């Protein structure tokens, strides 16, 4: 029997909640996702019952589904034993908690079938300061960025339902040289490599936002300051 590409441990959705204040204003997030029992309907913009609070950076057709490897929680528990109770599936805001693949095993443009839906991988997830606030660990967002254990996003090519325990089948891999891990290494460790940025821009399946940001780097000769994103 052929090994599945990955296996769904749980399908997760959540609503926004307050996590304090920032610059005198209430700060809310929908990062916490709870497991849903039974098949969950997936639309072009996400799972039924799921909410994205900061819609300018989360959600939308190119980021309809966030996947995070369940195996990474063991890594974080070993690294931060002071926050063991925080490192459980759903804590990184993932809609799909899975086993079998990590950032080095999936590529931009991958097309998979899971349940009755078909998904296309569009971009890595970029951590923000909410991650540090949520886990109660100073500079944790920067640590997530440095380790590249960020997760990734899918767009929905065919709607339907997804349920825990279902297995994903890899249908297409148009960009086998461009794993999510490689993209993140380029993005943060070699941010002005014009040859590789040009390759990245041409990748089938890359999200519109990442096309825009890659094009900006090539046109301006500069890369964005991610300090605010990591501390907000």
Uncertain segments: none
Shape, principal axes of CA atoms: globular
What average pLDDT do the residues reach? 93
Instruction: Let me know the CATH homologous superfamily.
Output: PK beta-barrel domain-like
Largest sheet composition? 7 strands, mixed, barrel
Percentage of residues in DSSP E strands? 25-35%
Order of strands, widest sheet: 1-8-7-11-10-9-13
Tally of DSSP helical segments:
7
**Amount of helix:** 25-40%
Number of strands: 13
Structural class, by secondary structure, is alpha+beta
Integer-rounded radius of gyration: 17 Å
Using the coordinates above, name the CATH class: Mainly Beta
Order of helices and strands: EEEEEEEHEEEHHEEEHHHH
As for the number of domains, it is 1
CATH-assigned fold name: M1 Pyruvate Kinase, Domain 3
Briefly summarize what is shown.
26% of the residues lie in helices and 28% in strands.
Structural description of this entry:
The strands form 3 sheets. The chain has a 7-stranded mixed beta barrel. Strands 6-5-12 form a 3-stranded antiparallel beta sheet, with no helix packed on it. It starts with 5 loop residues before the first strand and ends with a helix. It is built from 7 helices and 13 strands. The protein has 232 residues and is an alpha+beta fold.
């Amino acid at each position: 029997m052929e090994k599945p590409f990955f296996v769904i441990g749980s399908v997760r959705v959540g609503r926004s909640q307050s996590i304090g204040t920032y610059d005198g204003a209430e700060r809310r997030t929908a990062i916490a996702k709870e497991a849903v029992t039974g098949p969950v309907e997936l639309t072009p913009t996400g799972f039924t019952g799921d909410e994205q609070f900061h819609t300018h950076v989360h959600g939308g057709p190119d980021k309809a589904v966030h996947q995070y490897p369940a195996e990474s929680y063991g890594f974080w528990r070993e690294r931060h034993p002071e926050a063991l109770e925080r490192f459980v599936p759903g804590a990184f805001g993932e809609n799909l908690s899975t086993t079998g693949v990590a950032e080095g095993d999936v590529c931009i443009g991958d097309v998979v079938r899971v349940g009755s839906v078909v998904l296309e991988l569009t971009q890595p997830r970029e951590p923000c300061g909410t991650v540090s606030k949520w886990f109660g660990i100073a500079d944790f967002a920067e640590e997530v960025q440095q380790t590249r254990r960020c997760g990734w996003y899918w767009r929905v090519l065919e709607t339907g339902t997804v349920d825990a325990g279902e297995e994903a089948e890899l249908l297409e891999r148009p960009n086998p040289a461009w794993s999510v891990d490689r993209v993140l290494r380029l993005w943060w460790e070699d941010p002005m490599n014009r040859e590789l940025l040009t390759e990245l821009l041409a990748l089938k399946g890359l999200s519109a936002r990442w096309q825009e940001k890659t094009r900006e780097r090539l046109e301006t000769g500069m890369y964005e300051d991610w300090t605010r994103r990591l501390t907000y």
